[in-house]
Known about the structure:
With 227 residues, this protein is an alpha/beta fold. 48% of the residues lie in helices and 10% in strands. Pfam families: Hydrolase.
Amino acid sequence: MIRAIVMDIEGTTGSIRFGRDVLFPYARRRMAAFVRQRGEDPAVADQLAATRELAGEPEADRERLVAILDEWIAADRRVTPLKALQGMIWEEGYRRGDLTGHVYPDAVEGMKAWHAAGIPLYIFSSGSARAQKLLFAHSEAGDLTPLLTDYFDTTTGPKKEAESYRRIAAHLGLAGHEILFLSDVVDELDAAAAADFHTTQLVREAGMITGDHPVAASFTAVRLPES
Length: 227
Ligand SMILES: CSCCC(=O)C(=O)COP(=O)(O)O
Ligand SMILES: [Mg+2]
């Protein structure tokens, strides 16, 4: 029996293009002004300190920090301080009405059906938990947060390491084989399978790299394992 479903965001619940063409450029355009204006806020200052530490540049001033963060955005580094700062910038964007979270209609339909069937739904994404909540709260389909029980991000661990999935299972109080993980990325699915999770790969575009996992073109094609 599947007792929980854990979902990736980019390429799974929503399109990769939304991150690449909308969210990431939005944060990139605003990062310098955000660091200048909000750099003293404790939550921002903590992430700037974490950026200095991760970059190995304890003396980095604000200008240098913005340059480091810009390099990380360009390289699509999925590191916690960048993801936390991006989340804070997106929060402003959602509140201003500049941003609306993209969620595939089939993902909305699948999430509603599983929720109605009593299966708790979780997100595991590189985006910060706060950014994840915002995306689903301000989605094109309205506020989807009532469908979601909890959110995991890189503070739980990298998505390509089995230990992260063992931590999620322990947090949920479930065995790996009671959990289904949905993602578009084979390395993430391999890591989840190594933690004994059931897996399904969302293959939403032709030509994607696939592995040894069941595949589904949409949430409506996802089959829940019986045992
Ligand atoms: C609200 S998360 C926005 C997208 C993002 O920042 C990201 O890193 C998505 O990563 P995923 O693990 O969902 O592919
Ligand atoms: Mg993904």
